[in-house]
Amino acid sequence: EEGRSKGTGLEGCKAVKSGATFKNVAKKIRTKVTFHRPKTLKKDRNPKYPRISAPPRNKLDHYQILKFPLTTESAMKKIEDNNTLVFIVDICADKKKIKDAVKKMYDTQAKKVNTLIR
């Protein structure tokens, strides 16, 4: 070990004696007045136990989205004349979720979804 450290010291000494030029690294110009701490290495967390006991379940499945079909006279007229189904759906469901729920429950591709909050 001593020989190795001595060797590296000798190389440095030779470089200094021979007059090797060392580059001066230019100082970085700061352009902002606020100093932000540099982002350093962030390791992935490896917890000893999970912080939540069970994974969250999906509260809005296709059974929850489509509540029941609407059976008023105007809805029946729509079914007969316009080939349109009318459902009461969950308030949180968006058009894509309604479309997917109809496909899953009734094996039919919905062409278009119209919504009305009532």
Automatic annotation (TrEMBL):
<protein>
    <recommendedName>
        <fullName>Large ribosomal subunit protein uL23 N-terminal domain-containing protein</fullName>
    </recommendedName>
</protein>
<dbReference type="InterPro" id="IPR012678">
    <property type="entry name" value="Ribosomal_uL23/eL15/eS24_sf"/>
</dbReference>
<keyword id="KW-0687">Ribonucleoprotein</keyword>
<dbReference type="GO" id="GO:0006412">
    <property type="term" value="P:translation"/>
</dbReference>
<dbReference type="Pfam" id="PF00276">
    <property type="entry name" value="Ribosomal_L23"/>
</dbReference>
<dbReference type="Pfam" id="PF03939">
    <property type="entry name" value="Ribosomal_L23eN"/>
</dbReference>
<dbReference type="GO" id="GO:0005840">
    <property type="term" value="C:ribosome"/>
</dbReference>
<dbReference type="InterPro" id="IPR012677">
    <property type="entry name" value="Nucleotide-bd_a/b_plait_sf"/>
</dbReference>
<feature type="domain" description="Large ribosomal subunit protein uL23 N-terminal">
    <location>
        <begin position="14"/>
        <end position="55"/>
    </location>
</feature>
<keyword id="KW-0689">Ribosomal protein</keyword>
<dbReference type="GO" id="GO:0003729">
    <property type="term" value="F:mRNA binding"/>
</dbReference>
<dbReference type="GO" id="GO:1990904">
    <property type="term" value="C:ribonucleoprotein complex"/>
</dbReference>
<dbReference type="InterPro" id="IPR005633">
    <property type="entry name" value="Ribosomal_uL23_N"/>
</dbReference>
<dbReference type="InterPro" id="IPR013025">
    <property type="entry name" value="Ribosomal_uL23-like"/>
</dbReference>
<dbReference type="GO" id="GO:0003735">
    <property type="term" value="F:structural constituent of ribosome"/>
</dbReference>
<comment type="similarity">
    <text>Belongs to the universal ribosomal protein uL23 family.</text>
</comment>
